[in-house]
Amino acid sequence: MLDKLGAVGIAGIVVLLAGIGLVAWQAPIVAAGIALVVGGLGLVVYGLVTTLLGAFGLGGGMGGMGGGGMGGGGGGMP
After folding, report:
1. Is residue 71 classed as helix, strand or coil in its secondary structure?
2. What is the pLDDT of residues 6-36, one digit of tens each?
3. Which of 64, 60, 63 minimizes the C-alpha distance to 50?
4. 34 with 41: CB under 8 angstroms?
5. From CA 30, how far away is CA 71, in angstroms rounded?
6. 63 and 53 in contact (C-beta within 8 Å)?
7. What is the pTM assigned to this prediction?
8. Distance of alpha carbon 29 from alpha carbon 65, whole angstroms
9. Is residue 75 scored above 70 in pLDDT?
10. DSSP class per residue in 6-27
């Protein structure tokens, strides 16, 4: 998974964890709430991306472009 994030993604995770750690140092309950919010936001983004890719036929169990779409043969002008 880390190889797909790239350097910027890994840096973002480090900054995120450092920020939650800093908050946890002063207020552990607040840090737990922030961690839950960030985790929930990540799940929402994952769901949106999966649905969007499925709508374009690029994933999400849709199985490709189907019969139509770009390059789908049949009909048309010679």
Report:
1. coil
2. 888 889 889 999 999 999 999 999 999 999 9
3. 60
4. no
5. 53
6. no
7. 0.62
8. 47
9. no
10. HHHHHHHHHHHHHHHHHHHHH-
